[in-house]
Amino acid sequence: MSSTGKPLLGAIEAGGTKFVLAVGHSPAHIIARHEIPTRDPAATLAEANAWFEGHGAIGALGIGSFGPVDLDRSSPEWGRITNTPKPGWANCDLVGYFAERLGVPIGFDTDVNAAALAEYTYGAGKSAASLAYITVGTGIGGGLVLDGKGVHGAAHPEMGHILPRRHPDDRDFKGVCPHHGDCLEGLASGPAIKARWGASLSELPADHEAHEIIACYLAQLAVSLIAVTSVEIIVFGGGVMKTPALLERVEQLASELGAAYFPGKAKHKIVSPGLGQNAGLTGSLLLAADL
Ligand code: ZN
Question: What is the pTM of this model?
Fold first, then answer.
């Protein structure tokens, strides 16, 4: 129970390498945070559940999960991770597991939609009507909030899998996406960078061609997003984006690739996360608060 007399909110940011857990009085007020490594589902979920039980009764839980996930409330598979290649996790019933043990209502979305919601509400987009959140790391994913609502469509956006135009100095690399080869994730994710150049982007010298090539692909995502949705704020987060000057290169190239042409260009902004590492977790708390 919180000091305000209302039950605490719980949140899980379920990632492929770690689960981040939190309880808070409100989405903007996290009072305890805990990280556990992602192992097999049985061990990981049991450890997460034990942590929540150690914090007394929570009133609702929000989960922002790596995908793909089933977000269709009318589906018998709602709340599950679906056909992930991550060993053991395909068809994992995340919501069912915690609903049974904690007995509370549960909000569920992708990790990137949760992060987009948080950045829209409290972070880089708090004075805008629309925001996209892109993470560039082990994979590339994106969430989109238009007029205050996360966009789901038939399932959820998979922005990391758009098909960019190849950079002229990057014709031969086949790409690492198991589904599409040289989609955006196949060309510009952390593993794609390692596969091409044997190092992470931040380990390569500042004048290495990799910086321009990766920025070119990410800029194409930004231009595509603006062209299709007219979104105002595009937040780029994730490990690869910690590379010095990468965001500025993406911004510059997006402008050269055509973003400067679009109407409303003064409102289109490419920025870093306003909430730092807490976007996904804060978004998961928002999912819990919305129940
Ligand atoms: Zn792909």
Answer: 0.93
